Amino acid sequence: MSLLIKNGRVVDPANSMDAVQDVLISGSRIERIGPDLPLAAATTVLDATGKIVCPGFIDIHVHLREPGYEYKETVATGTRAAAAGGFTAVCCMANTQPVNDNRSITDYIRAKAAVEGVVRVYPIGAVTRGLGGEELAELAELAEAGCVAFSDDGRCVMNAALYRRAMEYTLPFGAPIISHAEDHELSRGTSMNEGVVSTELGVPGAPAAAEDIMVARDILLAELTGARVHIAHLSTAGAVRLVRGAKARGIRVTAEVTPHHLLLTEDAVRTFDANAKMNPPLRSKRDTEVLLEALIDGTIDCIATDHAPHAGSEKEGEFDRAAFGIVGLETAVGLLLDRLVKPGALPLATLISRLSSDPARLLGLPGGNLAPGAAADLTLIDPGAVWTVDPSKFASKSRNTPFGGWTVTGRPWKTIVGGGIVWE
Fold it and tell me: What's residue 20's pLDDT?
């Protein structure tokens, strides 16, 4: 089978391409890119006039919840949500039940994804057994089973000596440690950012220092060990300064930012809407400005959704008792196109790079470019589509988003994985 995508604006930052071109896919690979490719070259022709054709988007921070929390999300529903959001691959965190801290759980996730998934799924293994922070998980076994990184995301490994050993242990694998940078003692019992809003509402807040301190520690450990460390969901101006300085010194540190930390501030929690409660919390306007600057200049390497589905009951009731986290797979691309690219705050090519080639590079994943011979994973965007975020129509099992009711211009049009259209 072959597919010819005609007349689309091909934006491939990895190959410095931004032009109206045709893309010929043969089987599961990209065969050729060029102007006016012959129709006879393909069995199926897709007219992409007015659309953007780019490498498939990769989300390196997703919670699929399976095994153990299937009432929130499953591999089947989570990958369908990813496809609907324009993502061709996701990396799933280890905080399942049982925790993905051994080969059997990794094998289970990969087998589920092979049968029920519609996009590529790459497991991330736990750093410590049961996410307990007391002894290392079977890191070599997890790497052999197919884990592309290691993280106790959702919890910070507070024991610096243990984290050092984990970093040293991963050196032969080349896989990064993904750090959930949060000093639990500073953030204990908090529900939002410490600042003007928390003071006015009388709610305990987590200071930016709770993140900054652990980012600084993990950078120092990366410098000590030579290991690769990736900072998850960066949210503070101070952490950005630390990462920028570490990169300037040649330390092997990278970072990601979420759409919600780019687009929302702590003001979103004034109404005590638990859908705006997340960890790390929404920060100040100044933090969002610094995060965007860092995303553009490359200090922050990629965008990741931190898709964290929860049942409705877990987001109801008192704000301080509600679960942390929001779903993001189905809204990320549209929101970023509308709120950042459309007004000129973020170049389109930068957005596409931070969603495709950059995450692929960070974790050594296939995809991320449209060169001949590359995997035929593509995201096609309709930049003029006007739509309203309606959580009731999500492919995800969960509805916990603060963006419900937002009107957005721009969205994924078709998602192609391995040469086949998996969503349109």
Answer: 98
Question: CA of 215: how far to CAs of 183, 185, 234, 236, 300, in Å?
Answer: 10, 15, 9, 10, 13
What pTM was estimated for this model as a whole? Answer: 0.98
pLDDT tens digits for range 282-331: 999 999 999 999 999 999 999 999 999 999 999 998 999 999 999 999 99
8-state DSSP, 177: E
Nearest by Cα to 10 from 2, 24, 259, 68: 24
Q: At what angle do helices 237-248 and 285-297 cross, to 10 degrees?
A: 30
306 is catalytic: yes
Give the pLDDT band (50/70/90) at residue 216: very high
Residues in a beta bridge with 26 = 2, 29
Rounded CA-CA distance 100/107 in Å is 10
Neighbours of 21 (CB within 10 A): 23
In the structure encoding, which two tokens stand for residue 1, read together? Answer: 């089978």
The residue ranges of every structural domain in the chain are: 2-52+374-423, 55-363
Class assignment of domain 55-363? alpha beta
Q: Which two tokens stand for residue 184?
A: 């639990």
23: left (phi over 0), alpha (psi -120 to 50) or beta: beta
* Closest-CA residue to 67 (of 95, 86, 26): 95
From 12, 22, 59, 306, active-site residue: 306
DSSP assignment of 85-107: TTEEEEEE-S-SSS-S-SHHHHH
**Which pair of tokens denotes residue 288?**
């969002």
Q: What class is the 2-52+374-423 domain? A: mainly beta
